[in-house]
Every structure is written in C-alpha cells, then in structure tokens.
Design goal:
InterPro entries: Serpin_CS, Serpin_dom, Serpin_fam, Serpin_sf, Serpin_sf_1, Serpin_sf_2. This is Serpin B3-like. This protein has 4 helices and 16 strands. The chain is mainly beta. The chain folds into 2 domains: about 110 residues, Antithrombin, subunit I, domain 2 (Antithrombin, Chain I, domain 2, 2-Layer Sandwich); about 140 residues, Alpha-1-antitrypsin, domain 1 (Roll). A 5-stranded antiparallel beta sheet has the order 7-8-9-15-16. The longest helix has 15 residues. The chain is elongated.
C-alpha cells in the first residue's frame, strides 16, 4: 500500500445538469435505467479491477446525478504463502458442521499472543510495505466467535502491540477468503442529524431545477486475501520446535498500521 493512494472519482449526470458540471461529468440517460446502471457499474468494476462488479442495483428516472469515488488497495505479504502448499481442508462453521476451504500454509517467525479478556489467540502477519499488518483474532473455542465479538469492546489497540522480534517458529494455516461489505450510509447520517440532505437539499451552482435531494449514500468495500506476496525464505539452521496456529473456525481480522485500522471483518464461510 503506498502512502498516497489514488482516488478515482466520476460524476454521472443527466443532460440538463451537465452545463454546470463542465468536463468533469459523464452523461447518462436516467430515463433508460438499464443502460445507465450498466454504464455506472462497468466504470466501478474497471476502477476496482473487478473486485466490485455490481456497486448499485438500481437507478431511477428522476435522478439528476450520481457521484462515485473509488480507491483500490493492493498489498503483498512480506512472507508469501506458497501456492503449492494450499490445499482443501475443513473449516468449522459450527461445532458439528464444516465446509471445505482453500487453506494456505506457511512456517515462519510471527508475533503471537493469547489475550485472556477476549479468550482468543492473536497472530500478526506483516505485509511488505509501510508497516501494514493483518491481525488475526481466533477464539479458543470453535463456536466462540459471538463471544469474541461481544468482548471486543474491552480490547484496546495497545493490547495488540508486540515488542522485540518474533523468535519462535510457527506453522500457520489460514484460509483464502474474500469479504464484500456494502452499507447504506443514509440511516447512519440521519442518526447524526443530517436530514435536509435527503429531503430538501439545494444545489444552486449545479441546477436551477428547484429542490433536489440525495437518494442514497453507499459504501462498498471488497477485500481479497490470497497467497500473493514476496517469497518466504529463511536461513537454514538446526531444527527448532514449532507451534501451530490453525485458522479452521470463524475468526476476526484487522488490517492496520499502528493504531489505525483500515479494514476489519468477520470470516465464517457459513454461506458456502
């Protein structure tokens, strides 16, 4: 992840508001909802390297414009999971049910800790640049994900800090996974007291068509975790004991740098 991540933006607008927007807008015909929808979703898919393919699911004929911003992050592991070691293994979605997943494997020296307050083991996997890390929170109990989520309010980021260098070899097994999260921010903003924007907004510099309103504000985040990254290598030495960190039941992940958390998610494969 670079320190400066390019953000691509586009305004899709109906013909009557284009003059006020100049060359910054792309014309779409909202009276032809299917084509307008296709045009907008194709642009988002291209900007996000097809990680997000169906950003919006409908447009309406009375819409005047849609503003979209995208950012795409690609981060590589500091130590790569060898794809040749990835194989199908069972992941427990409950105490009695499993589903097959592509389980990645690696042996290395990583930070690991047990945190009693959340009854979970913590593993830190570094990315190649800018001190970005993925932190895995794996409950000790196979069915402990709900309790973990409830107890996260007691967790402070200082609890996830590690000192020194990791010294113990750990055999790590982590499933490949994708998380696609979409949220309508309209309700959240209304809860913060923003109401006129959605009912009685005024944009005099854009249009003289009277009162307008914002129909929806949507955020969509897609995260894919795979083996990609720099090859893992370590100097040959006498065999040393290893411990295991096998992520074979529901867990929480954080992608962060220091106290800044960029993404967080829960993985359970329950819908597979």
């Amino acid at each position: 992840m670079s320190d400066v991540t390019p953000i691509n933006s586009a305004i899709f607008a109906s013909k009557e508001v284009l003059p006020a927007l100049g060359n910054t807008a792309k014309e779409v015909n909202f009276n032809d909802p299917q084509n307008a929808l296709q045009t907008i979703n194709d642009w988002v898919a291209q900007q996000t390297k097809r990680k997000i393919k169906n950003f919006i699911d409908r447009v309406e004929a009375n819409m005047k414009m849609i503003l979209i911003s995208t950012a795409s992050y690609e981060v590589e592991w500091k130590y790569k999971f060898n794809p040749k070691l990835t194989k199908k293994e069972n992941f427990y979605t409950s105490l009695t049910q499993t589903t097959p997943v592509d389980m990645m494997s690696i042996r290395g020296r990583f930070y690991r800790r047990y945190i009693k307050s959340i009854d979970a083991d913590v593993l830190q996997l570094p990315f190649a640049k800018n001190e970005i890390k993925m932190t895995i929170l794996l409950p000790r109990k196979t069915n402990g994900i709900d309790k973990l989520l409830e107890s996260l309010t007691t967790l402070e980021l200082k609890d996830l800090k590690f000192k020194g260098k990791p010294t113990k070899l750990i055999d790590v097994k982590l499933p490949k996974f994708e998380v696609d999260f979409k949220v309508d921010l309209k309700k959240s903003m209304q809860g913060l007291g923003v109401h006129d924007l959605f009912s009685n907004a005024n944009f005099p510099n854009i249009t003289n068509h009277g009162v307008m309103k914002v129909n929806v504000i949507v955020q969509n985040v897609a995260v894919e975790v795979s083996e990609r990254g720099a090859l893992f290598a370590f100097a040959a030495r006498a065999p040393s004991p290893t411990s295991k960190f096998i992520v074979d039941h529901p867990f929480v992940f954080l992608i962060r740098r220091g106290n800044d958390v960029f993404f967080a998610g829960r993985v359970n494969f329950a819908d597979n």
